[in-house]
Amino acid sequence: MLALIAGTGDLPVALVARLPARPLICAMAGFRPAITPDITFRIEHLGSFLADLKARGVTGVCMAGAVTRPAIDPAAIDAATKPLVPRIAAAIAQGDDGALRTIIAIFEEAGLAVKAAHDLAPDLLPQAGVLSSAPVTFDHRKDAVLAEETLAEMGQVDVGQACIVRAGLVLAREGQAGTDAMMARFVPDDDPLWAVVDSVGDILGTAAEWLSGPEGTPTDARGAILFKGPKPDQDRRADLPVIGLRTAKAAVAAGLAGVVIEEGGVMVLDLEEVTATLDRAGLFFWVRPKGGA
Fold this sequence. Notes:
Layout: E1 2-6, H1 11-18, E2 24-28, E3 39-41, H2 46-55, E4 60-64, H3 85-93, H4 96-109, E5 113-115, H5 117-120, E6 129-130, H6 138-156, E7 162-166, E8 169-173, H7 179-184, H8 192-197, H9 200-204, E9 225-228, E10 242-243, H10 245-253, E11 258-262, E12 267-268, H11 271-280, E13 284-288
Parallel strand pairs: 1-2, 1-4, 2-3, 4-5, 9-11, 10-12, 11-13
Antiparallel strand pairs: 6-13, 7-8, 7-9
Helix pairs in contact: 3-4, 10-11
């Protein structure tokens, strides 16, 4: 039996729709997934939660969706979780990849196989190639090389899985707020397309890091590329990057020239709609092999 630990976003729903049988849906307290959970657990009760999964006959676990690091209430820790506290506390203090590696190890030590979302639903990983009509220019290919190098540097400090590059300059790097918040920096306040994506004011409240122009003001991103890929050497059973229709609409609203994702490293929800949205706006969509030119 499979348990799905669902975070926020559209991935858990998309995954459940692709599975032959409904898994046991679990959610951490404080995070409301788009699918109704069967079990809600607290991080302070992780030990008891693992025992409950085993008692229910669960043999495999998949983590899908966004979750931020929870605060721990020492007074709420139960007896089954006390032996795990030093490891949980150390994990929360690490970067995202380090924290996930620790959590995965705890699940595996409890006898639960941790399965990747893309292994359960391989169609979420599109094949390599330019999927839209707009061509990828030589300059965009050079920018993709720089973007890949930039993600590698970001990965060394375990921060971010996306960046925006134009004409050999890195305009923005993804921070904790995510890809859409990064792109929101470059969307006009009155853009009608962005208005249907989300409230730009809400997103900018926690927007990601960005680089400014020569006079200290933000540059626009017209003609730039969005590049998204996994962190180097990350455990791909959790936190593999995801894009969907929202990302495509944000790229259009920001005036980008195209979207580049790493082949085998980024899941795409609603692939046909994403491709069609970029196509209609004249943006290219390139699934690029790692190290490709």
